[in-house]
Amino acid sequence: MKAAVLHGYDEKLTAPDFVTYEDVPEPQIRNPTDVIVRIGGAGVCRTDLHIIEGVWRSKVDLKFPHIMGHENAGWIEEVGSAVTHLKKGDPVICHPLITSGHCLACRRGDDMHAEESEFPGINCNGGYAELLRTGARSIIKLPKSLAPKDVAPHTDAGLTAYRAAKKASRHLLPGQFAVVIGAGGLGHIGIQVLRAMCAARIIIVDRADMALQLAQECGADFAVKADGSELDEVMRLTGGKGAEAVIDFVGEGDAVAKGLAMTRDGGYYYIVGYGGKIDIPTIDMITSEKTIVGNLVGTYPELIELMALADQGKVTLATREYRLDEANAALHDLHHGKVRGRAVLIP
C-alpha cells in the first residue's frame, strides 16, 4: 500500500519534505479483536509537527520509519475472528487509542489513561496510509449523514475540544463568559460545542484574521485580535472581572499568562495546547481560588456524543482536503498558518 512515511526528526522544521510517499507492507490482523480500516480521511494535526520536531521524544520511544496520523475515519476492510458487530464496508470513525479493556481505567471508560494501549500515529503506525490497523473497541459506526473524510479530525481535534468545552459548559450559566484562546483547528470546534451546550457569551481571542472570521461564523459573540491589547479588551468586555471559564487551545508563548489573567476569581482555566509553562505564585492560587484543568483528548463515549452533535448539524468541521501524496504540502501549510480549520489527507 501507499503511505507518507517519516524517516527522522527535523527539529527546526526546515526540510522541504518531512515525509516520503512510498510503498509499505499492508497492516495485518495480529489479535482476534483487531480491525483493518481503509482510510477515507486522516487529519493533519499540529501534534504531527511536534512529532517531526522531536517534542514527543521524552514521552514516546518512536522507531523509524514511522507512519503518522492519529485522526482517522474510513471503512471496515477486515476484522479479527472475535469481532462480530462489524463487517466490511461499514463507515466508521476511530477513537485514537487502541485499548485492551482489561485495566481499571478501561473499565471506567477512562481510555486515555489505559495501562495497556497503543496510539496509532504516535507510538505505532497511523493513518497517513491507505490502510490502518486498530482495535474493535476503538470503532464507532458513522450515521449515513457523515462521510469519513468530513469527520476524521474529530477523533483528536474535535474530541479534545469537545472534552474541554463539555467540562466548561457544566458550570457556565446564562450571562456568564467563556473565553476561547485560539480559533484554529480545535478552537472553531470548541466554540460550536459551547454554543450547543450552554448559554454563556463566547469571546474568541486569536492573532489571525482568518481564524477570527471563522470563529464568528461558528457562533462566537465577540472576536478579539491578539495584538498585545487582548487582555485589556477581554477585561473590558467582562466588566473588569474576567471570564468564568477560559479554554486555552494555544498553551504556549504569552497565551498561558494572559489566559490565567483573563480567568476571574473562582473561575476555571482549561489548558489544552502545550509547549509553554504555567507559573503562578501559590498565594495567588489561594486568594483567587482559580482552578486549572488539564485536558488529554477524550473518551470513547465522548466521541459518540460528539458524533451525535455532528449528525444534528450542530458541530461542523472546516476542512481543507489534500491527497495522501500531498502530505508534505499539508504539513507545511499547517506549519505556516495557511490552513483554515483542519487539513485532511485522502488516499
From TrEMBL:
<dbReference type="InterPro" id="IPR002328">
    <property type="entry name" value="ADH_Zn_CS"/>
</dbReference>
<dbReference type="Pfam" id="PF08240">
    <property type="entry name" value="ADH_N"/>
</dbReference>
<dbReference type="GO" id="GO:0008270">
    <property type="term" value="F:zinc ion binding"/>
</dbReference>
<protein>
    <recommendedName>
        <fullName>alcohol dehydrogenase</fullName>
        <ecNumber>1.1.1.1</ecNumber>
    </recommendedName>
</protein>
<dbReference type="InterPro" id="IPR036291">
    <property type="entry name" value="NAD(P)-bd_dom_sf"/>
</dbReference>
<dbReference type="GO" id="GO:0004022">
    <property type="term" value="F:alcohol dehydrogenase (NAD+) activity"/>
</dbReference>
<dbReference type="Pfam" id="PF00107">
    <property type="entry name" value="ADH_zinc_N"/>
</dbReference>
<dbReference type="InterPro" id="IPR013154">
    <property type="entry name" value="ADH-like_N"/>
</dbReference>
<dbReference type="InterPro" id="IPR013149">
    <property type="entry name" value="ADH-like_C"/>
</dbReference>
<feature type="domain" description="Enoyl reductase (ER)">
    <location>
        <begin position="14"/>
        <end position="345"/>
    </location>
</feature>
<dbReference type="InterPro" id="IPR011032">
    <property type="entry name" value="GroES-like_sf"/>
</dbReference>
<dbReference type="InterPro" id="IPR020843">
    <property type="entry name" value="ER"/>
</dbReference>
<comment type="similarity">
    <text>Belongs to the zinc-containing alcohol dehydrogenase family.</text>
</comment>
<keyword id="KW-0479">Metal-binding</keyword>
<keyword id="KW-0862">Zinc</keyword>
<keyword id="KW-0560">Oxidoreductase</keyword>
